[in-house]
Design brief:
Elements (H helix, E strand, L loop, with lengths): L8 E5 L5 E2 L1 H15 L2 E5 L11 E3 L7 H15 E2 L2 H6 L1
Parallel strand pairs: 1-3
Antiparallel strand pairs: 1-4, 2-5
Helix pairs in contact: 1-2
């Protein structure tokens, strides 16, 4: 029996104190799907963790993980935001 490779998946962890921008997440999902056939999953943590780097899981074909992350990083950065700056303004 041959093994079927797992489909590519981008796993995102929400940084502590951040929220998700739904439109930016939709844009990331669309781009990852079109470019790599990948899905995007956001792991909703109950406890914040300092390490929130995205993980690439599954089989990405000939694409190297470092290159994929470098290309997706600007889109990933737009997905999360916080309003800490607002406390300084008020």
């Amino acid at each position: 029996m041959s093994e079927t490779p797992l489909a590519p998946l981008v796993l995102l962890h929400i940084p502590a104190g951040h929220e998700i921008d739904p439109q930016a997440l939709d844009a990331l999902k669309a781009h990852a799907g079109e470019q790599y056939g990948a899905s995007v999953l956001v792991n909703p943590r109950l406890l914040p963790k300092t390490d929130h780097r995205p993980l690439l899981l599954g089989h990405w074909g000939r694409a190297l993980p470092g290159q994929v992350l470098a290309e997706l990083e600007p889109l990933i950065a737009r997905v999360f935001f916080n309003l800490d700056w607002l406390a300084d303004v008020i």
